[in-house]
Amino acid sequence: MKTGVKTAVGAGTRTGASLPQGGDRRTGRRRARLVAGVLLGLLVGGLAVGGLLWLQRPQPRPAPPPEPGPAELALAAVHAGVPPEPRDLAVLIEERERRLREHPRDARSWAVLGMAYVERGRRTADAANYPTAERALRTSLKVWPGNAGALEGMTALANARRDFRAARTWGEAALKADRKRWTTHSLLIEAYTGLGDYKAARSTLDRLQKMHSGTAVMVRSAAVYWDRGWREDALATLSDAAATAEAPAERAAWLERAGQLAWERGEREVALRHFEEALRADPGQRAAQAGQARALAALGRTSEALRAYRGAVAERPSPQYALELGELYESLGLEQAARAQYDLLHTQVRSAAAGGVDEELVLGRYEADHGDPEEAVRLLRAEWRKQPGIAVADALGWALHRAGEHEEALEYAVRATDKEHGGGVRSALYAYHRGMIENTLGLQGPARRHLREALRINPYFSPLFAPLAREKLNALGEPPEVPVPAA
């Protein structure tokens, strides 16, 4: 019995001794879990603190995107409807020609190349660029019929060639292909204006202004405002465009146009300041150089004016500049020098025609005043049938007057100066022409009014004809006093 008890007690003791050992294992496991949790917490906390410290450290900035190259800059300018930098444009032409040698069925590149040649032709007034532009654009249309880019390019080309009917046709086709191309609307405004369709020009401008608001739209708006007689609005809009322009060539182009408008208002000093600022921004801006010459001549700085005109004529083969320089020489009594410029005008008109450019308006003006008025009438009647805008109406009216057809001449002069016919432009030259025609017809009151208006708009509008306007106005004298009827 003692043995059993002893055994039982021993067994119980062993059994009792095993309980604390199992608890130790559970406690160890709890401790292990606790230690692991603490370690994990420390690790997570450490990572969080480390991450926070890492975030607070100055981080290396990502590398900026590469600057656009000359070709990209020129392409962006063309797409934005603004003048590209000449060097960038040359690179774009070279780059596209190289690509097209490898990928001759790239319709988009053909369209871009065509537009680039149009832009170069516009800047240089070298009509030899236009046949190349046309070949590129027609190739684009052959590869991809109806593509809006090439159709818009053909619109720009037709405007540059002064073929406004073709520009209207191409532009309306481009809009059918892509109504969201705001640059097509801008080109159509130019075409409608050239055709004398001022209502269509205004409605198209309204749509354009809702689509886009860049400097190209501002400049196009200014042109429409000027045509409507809103001179202050036009000048303010152009000034804003020039102030916000980014590239030198763009800024110079808008300053040159601001100078033109200031000149039309007779503001010689303001015009000269705009032209000279444009030349500082872009020394190759020959339109600004011609404007500078115009303003200098009006200020009596004749030697400087002649140098500026010679520079413009030498670098930009524009018949208009040759005509202006010839008339300045003629006003100075330098007949031989004037004749040389008129001969140059004929040469330049022929060169322009070879490139598809219509310079009949300038040629008609020359013939009316310095050549054969009958030939001027023939040229300008044909021009009127093609594109009956205000400028053609004025030139045809004056040619008819010079040819002795005064009654019919007055009809066109009225159209050019009467707002009911779209002639909202306040032009000293147009008012002078109308006044002289009215004087020949014995309409002294209207003649006096329009000659006075011409000199009020711009007393310096022409070195040849502004003095004649003053002479004729002095000869007309003051209007006779009309006695007040007795009460």
CATH topology descriptor of the domain at 366-477: Serine Threonine Protein Phosphatase 5, Tetratricopeptide repeat
**Mean pLDDT across all residues, rounded?**
88
- What proportion strand? under 5%
| Poorly predicted runs of 5 or more residues | 1-32, 34-55
Description:
- It is a single chain.
- The chain has 487 residues and is mainly α.
- 77% of the residues lie in helices and 0% in strands.
- The chain is built from 24 helices and no strands.
- It has helices at residues 2-56, 70-79, 86-102, 107-124, 129-143, 148-160, 164-177, 182-194, 198-211, 215-227, 231-244, 248-264, 268-281, 286-298, 302-315, 319-331, 335-354, 360-370, 373-386, 390-402, 406-417, 428-440, 444-457, 465-476.
- It starts with a helix and ends in an 11-residue tail after the last helix.
- Residues 1-32 and 34-55 have low confidence and may be disordered.
Give a brief rundown of this model.
Helices cover 77% and strands 0% of the residues. It has 487 residues and is mostly helical.
Annotation keywords:
487 residues, mainly alpha, Serine Threonine Protein Phosphatase 5, Tetratricopeptide repeat, 77% helix
Provide the fold topology.
Layout: H1 2-56, H2 70-79, H3 86-102, H4 107-124, H5 129-143, H6 148-160, H7 164-177, H8 182-194, H9 198-211, H10 215-227, H11 231-244, H12 248-264, H13 268-281, H14 286-298, H15 302-315, H16 319-331, H17 335-354, H18 360-370, H19 373-386, H20 390-402, H21 406-417, H22 428-440, H23 444-457, H24 465-476
